[in-house]
Amino acid sequence: MSSIWFLNGVKKGIKTERYPYAEPVSAPQWPSRLSGHDGGNCPVDAITPDGWVMEKCIFCRRCLPDYKPTGDQRIFTIKKTEDTFRRSFHVFPIDSGACGACNMEFLSIFSPQYDANRLGIFMVNTPRYADALIVMGVMTPGMKEALDRAYEAMPEPKLVIAMGACAVTGGIMGENPLDREKYNVEIAGCPPSPYTLIAALNAAMKDKRKADYFESKRQEVH
C-alpha cells in the first residue's frame, strides 16, 4: 500500500490523502466489511447462523468463498461520544499485550500519507492529557494495574477505545483486557487499517460536518 501511495504522490504532487473527505486512495480488501452467507470455516466463531460478527473476525480468509471482502473500511461501533471532542481529540495508546500489528497501524495514521493531525486527532505521551484511551492487545496480568492507573489519570469526560480483535473480544490469542461494556468505541480488524482507524476516531469526535461530507461522497461513488 505504501509503495502505491508513494508513486501516486510523485505523479500528482500530493503527499497526504484527503480521506475521510474523499475516497481512500488504496484501501485494502483485508480487513474490510465482509459480505456472504452460509458456511465458512472460522477459528474464532465470527461466522454464526445470523451472519458475520465483525468484532470477532481476525480476517484469516478461511471463510472464502462463502464470505468476501467489500472494501468498506467502516468496521467499528460507536457507543458513546462527547461534544467536547468535536474540534480536537487527544488519544493515549496503551499496549496490554499486542503482537505489534495494531501498534504499527496506529502510528501510521500520523504519517504524511494520512496525517491525522489535520483532522484534529493527536497522540499524547501521558493519559493526563488524553481524551481517549486506546487499548490494544489481549489481557496480560502484568498490564492490569497499568490499564487501571492510566484510566484513573485521565480527566473527564473520557472515552475508552478498543482497537483490534484482541482488545475487543480476545481474538485468537487470549482474553480481552477489559469487559466490553467498558468500551465506548470498538474497532474491528486484525489489525484495523489506517482508514478504519481514522474513520472511527473521526466518528468518535462527533463532527457531524465531516461525517455528512464523507457519507455524501460515498453515495456518489456507489
Q: What does this entry show, briefly?
A:
It contains 6 helices and 10 strands, in the order αββββββαββαβαβαα. With 222 residues, it is α/β, with parallel strands linked by helices.
What does this structure look like?
This protein has a single domain, classed as Rossmann fold (3-Layer(aba) Sandwich), CATH 3.40.50. It is built from 6 helices and 10 strands. It has helices at 2-12, 101-108, 144-153, 165-169, 194-204, 208-221, and strands at residues 34-36, 47-48, 51-52, 67-69, 76-78, 89-97, 121-123, 132-137, 159-163, 185-187. Helix content is 27%, strand content 18%. It is of the alpha/beta class. The strands form 3 sheets. Strands 5-10-9-8-6-7 form a 6-stranded mixed β-sheet, with helices on both faces. This is Formate hydrogenlyase subunit 2. GO terms for molecular function: 4 iron, 4 sulfur cluster binding; metal ion binding.
The total tally of domains equals 1
- Per CATH, the class reads Alpha Beta
SSE pattern, N- to C-terminal: HEEEEEEHEEHEHEHH
The number of helical segments is 6
Strand order of the largest sheet: 5-10-9-8-6-7
Structural class: alpha/beta
CATH names the topology as: Rossmann fold
Helix content: 25-40%
CATH architecture: 3-Layer(aba) Sandwich
Mean pLDDT: 90
**Oligomerization state:** single chain
Shape, principal axes of CA atoms? globular
Described by strand count, sense and barrel closure, the largest sheet is: 6 strands, mixed
Strand content: 15-25%
Protein name: Formate hydrogenlyase subunit 2
Pfam families: Oxidored_q6
Keywords: 4Fe-4S, Iron, Iron-sulfur, Metal-binding
Domain NADH:ubiquinone oxidoreductase-like 20kDa subunit: 99-203
